[in-house]
Amino acid sequence: MADSFELIVTRKEPVVVSPASETPKGLHYLSNLDQNIAIIVKTVYYFKSNLRSNEESYQVIKKSLSEVLVHYYPAAGRLTISPEGKIAVDCTAEGVVVVEAEANCGIEMIKKAITEIDRPETLEKLVYDVPDARSILEIPPVVVQNIRYQREREENAEKVCYSYSLSTK
């Protein structure tokens, strides 16, 4: 039965979360290492909560991002090619792409599919990819997907599990 497992992640429309207040504008040049190795790093973080519903969690992450982007404003910009031909962050305050999603199973089944069944393609469904992006310049520096998993029973207590996947440059 475990071998027939298929993760289905249903996504809502992406929204853009902008900084809560005005931020500096201009170009921030990347390091020499980043100029030569411009890659996308995808990570998944998850936690269980008895305190928040999915809607609350989603609203908290959007509000927190908005406030954090004021201080880490390059994350709300876009990658570009500078007049010197180098990759830079154009601090435009356009914002971070955030997607709310729901999975058809609990996190334990996903962990099992990734490790025991050797189904690494499961990981790809946990991270949102910007549709039709043909290059790294067409993807915002930070993309967040907030997934709500089905409830799992642990020690006779129902817990809701969430994950936040981040794609960063």
From TrEMBL:
<protein>
    <submittedName>
        <fullName>Omega-hydroxypalmitate O-feruloyl transferase-like</fullName>
    </submittedName>
</protein>
<dbReference type="InterPro" id="IPR023213">
    <property type="entry name" value="CAT-like_dom_sf"/>
</dbReference>
<dbReference type="InterPro" id="IPR050898">
    <property type="entry name" value="Plant_acyltransferase"/>
</dbReference>
<dbReference type="Pfam" id="PF02458">
    <property type="entry name" value="Transferase"/>
</dbReference>
<comment type="similarity">
    <text>Belongs to the plant acyltransferase family.</text>
</comment>
